Amino acid sequence: EPEVTQTPSHQVTQMGQEVILRCVPISNHLYFYWYRQILGQKVEFLVSFYNNEISEKSEIFDDQFSVERPDGSNFTLKIRSTKLEDSAMYFCASTGLAGGPGELFFGEGSRLTVL
Amino acid sequence: DAKTTQPPSMDCAEGRAANLPCNHSTISGNEYVYWYRQIHSQGPQYIIHGLKNNETNEMASLIITEDRKSSTLILPHATLRDTAVYYCIVRLFTGGFKTIFGAGTRLFVKA
């Protein structure tokens, strides 16, 4: 069964460093998303991406964040200068047409720890 | 997106049916009901969705009331592996709209 894959599974970084989280969505999907989950809290929407541009972003997704689809398969989330409060699980998700855009397929997540 | 209300936690005995309720009294006519679950800290997993008819798949059944103001997710024979947080979400069935997760219901399946 096709799946969304994310790398790295865990990254530890120093405050102020740049981090890139990578995702390979399911190949024929059209909509791509990043969510995050701070330990013990809700899953929070960050950004959605369609047709090579951001379609919606939350207030969390400030100028420190950016997304890119550099080729036909990867979808990345960059945090330019990490803060302690960026420590969280980051989930990538994608949707296709078959199940409808509400049927998100999530990856297993990348745990980011900022020291 | 309309808001949903779910109980914060529920218990269920292994092998019994787990019935998870959700209220969505402000749902609009073109919004669908979606259910997801999150096992421990894994990525959320899609379970099922529906508009107004009852739906069933290999994982669960979804019962939506006639007025569409509430729904129930049914896991027919709960196992220990079904212990998870279950999210009820309403949203439009069109692209470009974000899916918003609430606090969900933490289901504990006990042996």
Q: Round the Cα radius of gyration of chain B to an integer and report it.
A: 13 Å
Provide the residue-averaged pLDDT of chain B: 92
Alpha carbon gyration radius of chain A: 13 Å
Binned, the helix content of chain A reads under 10%
Strand content of chain A: over 45%
Overview of the molecule:
The complex is a heterodimer of chains A (115) and B (111). Chain A is mostly beta strands. Chain A is built from no helices and eleven strands. Chain A has strands at 5-7, 10-13, 19-24, 31-37, 44-50, 53-57, 65-68, 75-79, 88-95, 105-106, 110-114. In chain A, the strands form two sheets. In chain A, strands 2, 4, 5, 6, 9, 10 and 11 form a seven-stranded mixed sheet that branches. The N and C termini of chain A lie far apart (37 Å). Chain B is globular, with a radius of gyration of 13 Å. In chain B, a hairpin with a 6-residue loop joins strand 3 and strand 4. The relative contact order of chain B is 0.35. Chain A binds chain B through residues 4, 30-31, 33, 35, 37, 42-45, 48, 50, 55-56, 58, 89, 91, 93, 95, 99-109, and chain B through 32, 34, 36, 38, 41-46, 49, 87, 89, 91-103.
